[in-house]
From TrEMBL:
Keywords: Allosteric enzyme, Glycosyltransferase, GTP-binding, Magnesium, Nucleotide-binding, Transferase. This is Uracil phosphoribosyltransferase. Pfam families: UPRTase (PF14681). Gene3D superfamilies: 3.40.50.2020.
Length: 212
């Protein structure tokens, strides 16, 4: 897996306010949205394109447009939904599929509870959205799920990642032949004994949607 830390002053600025426990939910949502749009720019560097002939008012020329089938954006429920609008601003013609994976808080393992994906992802480029790469269990499971359906190029977009999670995903996807990329706003210090990223930003789902 290729790991790309999108270090840019605007990303670091927005992340700082996201981390701040005084940031309220509406502001958190807006910042997450803006941050994802910046990360999406980095994440789509290798999006597949096809030459496309057009005429400007002055002369014919060749440009490019997104190849078909269009990329599939897959937010991991629930917190990944908070990243969907920001991603779709950059890829408005992408399709969207939903995957519900939740973490068992005792075993910290991922379990699939919802799948609204196309049945066949043959040769599809997929962008997986999940704000926090913590233990890595959810992301590994999501990548495996998409590859088993035929996806042949997967980019995970996360706001923050823990080194332990990155290592686990690296290990667990090592046998997958397709290119796998991780784009993150930052790599934090570590996980604590509850599986939270330190310093992190707390529970991303709760901060996006309130505690339920
Ligand atoms: N999920 C979160 O929302 N936050 C963490 O720190 C780890 C997992």
């Amino acid at each position: 897996m290729r790991v790309h830390v999108a270090d840019h002053p605007l990303i670091a600025h927005k992340l700082t306010y996201l981390r701040d426990k005084r940031t309220d939910t509406p502001t958190f949502r807006r910042l997450a949205d803006e941050l994802v749009t910046l990360l999406a720019y980095e994440a789509t560097r290798e999006v597949r394109v096809t030459p496309f002939n057009i005429e400007t008012p002055v002369a014919p020329t060749q440009g490019i447009h997104l190849s078909s089938p269009k990329p599939l954006v897959v937010p991991i429920l629930r917190a990944g939904l908070g990243m969907l609008d920001g991603m779709m601003k950059m890829l408005p013609t992408a399709e969207v599929g939903f995957l519900g994976l939740e973490r068992n808080e005792e075993t910290l393992e991922a379990r699939t509870y919802a799948n609204r994906l196309p049945e066949d992802l043959d040769k599809r480029q997929c962008y997986v959205l999940d704000p926090m790469l913590a233990t890595g269990g959810t992301l590994s499971a999501a990548i495996r799920f998409l590859v088993d359906l035929g996806a042949d190029d997967i980019t995970a977009v996360v706001l923050l990642a823990a080194p332990e999670g990155i290592e686990r995903v690296q290990r667990e996807v090592a046998d997958i032949g397709a290119p796998i990329t991780l784009v993150t706003g930052a790599i934090d210090e570590r996980l604590n004994d509850k599986g939270y990223i330190v310093p992190g930003l707390g529970d991303a789902g709760d901060r996006l949607y309130g505690v339920v």
